[in-house]
Amino acid sequence: MLRTPLVRRLANSAHALARPTPRARTLSVAFSTSRPAASKAPAAVPFTSDKFPELVRDSRFGSVTPEHVARFRDITGDVDAAVISAGTNTAQELDVYNEDWMRKYKGRTTLVLRPKTTQEVSAILRYCNEHTLAVVPQGGNTGLVGGSVPVHDEIVISTVRMNAVRSLDEVSGILTAEAGCVLEVLDLHLRERGFCMPLDLGAKGSCNIGGNVASNAGGLRLLRYGSLHGTVLSMEVVLADGTIMELGKPLRKDNTGYDLKQLFIGSEGTLGMITAVSILTPPKSSAVNVAMLGVKSFAEVQEAFRRARLELGEILSAFEFFDRTCMDLVKRHLPIREPLETKSPFYVLIETSGSNKDHDDEKLATFLERLLEEEVVQDGALASDTAQAHAMWNVRESITEACSKEGGNFKYDLSVPVPQLYAIVDAMRARLADLGLLRSDSAPTAPVTNVVGFGHIGDGNLHLNLTTTGWTRELNDAIEPFVYELVQARNGSISAEHGLGLMKAPYLEYSKSPEAIELMRRVKAAFDPKGILNPYKYFPRQ
Ligand code: FAD
Ligand code: 2HG
Ligand code: ZN
């Protein structure tokens, strides 16, 4: 138990307390943000259309012909990097765009287009619309709901070559960047100029700002900076028919009519292609402190959060939690040491960010000492330098990758009232155990090897992950819609941050009324009358 050392460290030495510890990030973060590394040759990813035969190809869509490919070569200036096609490239080169990050979904596209300019995107979409060719917009392909890859042979339009920073207004902090800019690259660009991105996630080394906005990503800093619905000020989009539009203005205030850009935030490629984004970026904090706490129960996680909001107030910038199984998985699969000595059923990661180092140090130290004295927490450590802070964040940010190394994953990102959050994990464990599907001493070969809970407590967002020996229909049906029923019963949302994609499209009714879904369909039809943008996803099948 680290209680004594923590108290001593807090009481005896101001030097031992964290000095300014901005999370030192490199582009090649310690844990991969691309696809899961495998210790042995990974099994081939099954085609989505084989796994889900009910997803019949829509016969209204045309198939790609050599004439189409020639036309796309014309549009993109016949640059090799712009066109990846079955005629010229290998299946492996196409797989990068056909397979998702989890290796759970796989399309059969024979054509990937990587335009460089908005005008090229416009010409491509106009042509696709005229020829009723279905497309999938793709950014960094780190999405976790099967939305970023084709189901059948939809053409992938990737933003990876649209990666210029257009401008940064250093007075207001308004950044305008093309959709294919990698989140971490933008963050580093800003940090050199005294700002930072208001968004941070484990996939930052690969995901694109266009993909972040299209999926309305939440991440680790939402508690501090709010959602993209507040920070995105305007965007440039290309509609299905090729029309280029500026939605909103790069201004903080603009009350002129419907705020159409909001529809694109979280639209997951179904309304148009986002080609550039203007976003309000905050000043980077000069004083950042990180602490990890071990607590005995989820009730104590909540109490620690309640107290953090009250006592840390404006400097609280992240409050994350994870359970013991997450810690075990991270240690098993990644070269990461446990920051605390005592094993606890739950862990909390707290970050504060401010501008007055001494003030923040004292505030956090006093807060932690009180929680220890009152036995709200049983163990804890305060990072004393950047390396320690980074090590603590590494544990939290590596959970997704650690789960992926266990085998198959079922992932749920749920919003429910905070007091009921972990009850979902318990209910899932109980159900799987009852069905004999959860591995234990009495069920040593059961397919579900772990059920873990972690997430953004500050946002009421639970990540429920099941690691399994593989995907089977039977397992899928044992979990869904049961998990969505649990959420609906608590008036929650079936997607707090990863979106609907292919995975949750059939279950939208667990979060939205029939009237709301019908209105969404009418919006979709207004923007994309032929339905060529990211078909088979987002909406329940009719
Ligand atoms: P993609 O995966 O390529 O696409 C996502 C969706 O957006 C797809 O439907 C696609 O069609 C659409 N799209 C992409 N680009 C465009 C565009 N330019 N115009 C229109 N539509 C487009 N999410 C969170 O919310 N919080 C997290 O903390 C978080 N952590 C993650 C950690 C890891 C390790 C991983 C692998 C994923 C994580 N995610 C998280 C999932 C998250 O949605 C993505 O990482 C990210 O926001 C997607 O960006 P992307 O560029 O990879 O988009
Ligand atoms: C996170 O918060 C991401 O780390 C990924 O949203 C969650 O892997 C997951 O389920
Ligand atoms: Zn998350």
From TrEMBL:
Keywords: FAD, Flavoprotein, Oxidoreductase. Residues 105-284 form the FAD-binding PCMH-type domain. It comes from the Eukaryota. One of its GO terms (molecular function) is FAD binding. GO terms for cellular component: mitochondrion. Its cofactor is FAD. It catalyses: (R)-lactate + 2 Fe(III)-[cytochrome c] = 2 Fe(II)-[cytochrome c] + pyruvate + 2 H(+). InterPro entries: FAD-bd_oxidored_4_C (IPR004113), FAD-bd_PCMH (IPR016166), FAD-bd_PCMH-like_sf (IPR036318), FAD-bd_PCMH_sub1 (IPR016167), FAD-bd_PCMH_sub2 (IPR016169), FAD-linked_Oxase-like_C (IPR016164), FAD-oxidored/transferase_4 (IPR051264), Oxid_FAD_bind_N (IPR006094). Belongs to the FAD-binding oxidoreductase/transferase type 4 family. PANTHER family: D-2-HYDROXYGLUTARATE DEHYDROGENASE, MITOCHONDRIAL. This is FAD-binding PCMH-type domain-containing protein. The lineage of its organism: Eukaryota, Fungi, Fungi incertae sedis, Chytridiomycota, Chytridiomycota incertae sedis.
